Amino acid sequence: MEQIEIGLSGLKTSRIGLGTWAIGGWKWGGTDERQAIATIRSAVERGVTLIDTAPVYGFGSSEEIVGKALAGGLRDKVQIATKAGLAWKDGKVYRDSRPARLTLEVEGSLRRLGTDTIDLYQIHWPDMETPFEETAFALEKLRLAGKIRAIGVSNFSPAQIDAFRAVARVDAVQPPYNLFEREMESDVLPYASKTGLTVLSYGALCRGLLSGSMTASTLFGGDDLRKVDPKFQSDRFGHYLAAVDELAALARQRFGKSVLALAVRWVLDQGPTIALWGARRPDQLDPIDEIDGWQIDEESKREIDAILARCIKSPVSPAFMAPPLTRPDLGLDVTQACQQALAGR
After folding, report:
1. Where do runs of H (alpha helix) occur along 46-184?
2. What is the spatial distance between Cα 77 and Cα 116, in angstroms, rounded to a whole number?
3. Phi, psi of 262, deg, nearest 5
4. What mean pLDDT value characterizes the chain?
5. Which neighbouring-strand residues pair with 93?
6. Residues annotated catalytic, as ranges
7. What are the pLDDT digits (tens) for 236-252?
8. 218: helix, coil or strand?
9. In angstroms, rounded to a whole number, what is the distance separating the alpha carbons of residues 33 and 70?
């Protein structure tokens, strides 16, 4: 499997990473822990060495499942990327990257993951109520203490990353990026290429749309976020499915590949990128062998763009996933918030 270095950290990892938001269950209609553990282990067997998770994924359950899956000898074969800076109470999530909280939050992640060092520690969303320099300094102290090996930011703009980099060495940025969600091409992607940041592209399959397995009759249960994702509603869903059908025909005719392989290969062909691929069952990883050893030519890229322009009448961004910009008054001081983070769920 293709490899890439994460910024200047010295960490080298696979260019396909396993994203574990769905494995945590929250916003994905629940989880099956046994299947989830089997999926993580299957990914490692197939050459995936980057596992991306976060405390908020299942309110601790995703990190716990990753820890269980890697116990017994697999930890040394992978790089763990997790995140910080989101707190929760009664199922409501808010941004909180205050240094005092981060200092204790990392201990909760280390415990749940069953490790003494986190390879890549990322701020999940920019906290507009805490100076970025203060958050960056807190992470730099964790790196110097050996708690983490590298620092990343997720969902940050170039200006926000600049403020962070004034205090700490940032090695990676994690934005949403896939064939259907390309906002970062105007700012974050060129910024990363210029500054040497590695891009962890989350949502490479656009919440399953680009898997090739969805139809107009596909239903989503429980708290599945696709019930509120604008892409999966009414006529828009049909437009996106029509695009997937045309992309699938192009992938098959020109490359002999699946549309899933085309979508992941497209992300990898855009620059210093890692494609984070969410899976919940081992068989969902079967197309992984289709990704390496080829590239999408320029003519095909132009045809892909033409398909999107033709099929998708009113494209929408992934902005619906963003937590509120301001912290509500939840009656918690920073110590209580830290205790929640340490407790997990």
Report:
1. 61-70, 99-113, 132-144, 158-165
2. 15
3. -60, -45
4. 92
5. 88
6. 57
7. 999 999 999 999 999 99
8. coil
9. 13
Q: What is the pLDDT of residue 345?
A: 45
Closest CA to 222 of 36, 51, 58: 58
Take residue 280 and report the two structure tokens written for it: 């919940």
C-beta of residue 167 within 8 angstroms of C-beta of residue 196 = no
Entry pTM: 0.92
pLDDT tens track for 69-104: 999 899 999 999 999 999 988 878 999 999 999 999
Angle CA 198–199–201, to nearest 5? 155
> In the CATH hierarchy, which fold is given to the domain comprising 3-208+261-295+331-343?
TIM Barrel (3.20.20)
First to last CA, the chain: 35
Nearest-5° angle of CA 141, CA 146, CA 151? 60
**Residue 61 pairs with which residues in a beta bridge?**
none
CB 128 within 8 A of CB 95: yes
What is the 8-class DSSP label of residue 200? E
Q: Is the CB of residue 272 less than 8 Å from the CB of residue 238?
A: no
Locus of tokens 């359950």 = 61
Q: pLDDT tens digit string along 168-222? A: 999 999 999 999 999 999 999 999 999 999 999 999 999 999 999 999 999 888 8
Q: Which neighbouring-strand residues pair with 94?
A: 87
Alpha carbon of residue 199 to chain centroid: 10
28 pLDDT exceeds 80?
no
Angle made by CA atoms 220, 226, 229, in degrees to the nearest 5:
150
Type of residue at 213:
S
Between CA 81 and CA 85, with CA 82 as vertex, the angle to 5 degrees is 145
Name the DSSP letter for residue 292: S
144: its two tokens: 């110097």
CA 98 vs CA 43, 112, 322, 330: distances in Å:
34, 21, 19, 15
- For the residues of 234-253, what is the DSSP string, one character each? HHHHHHHHHHHHHHHHHIII
- 3-class DSSP string for 27-69: CCCCCCHHHHHHHHHHHHHCCCCEEECCCCCCCCHHHHHHHHH
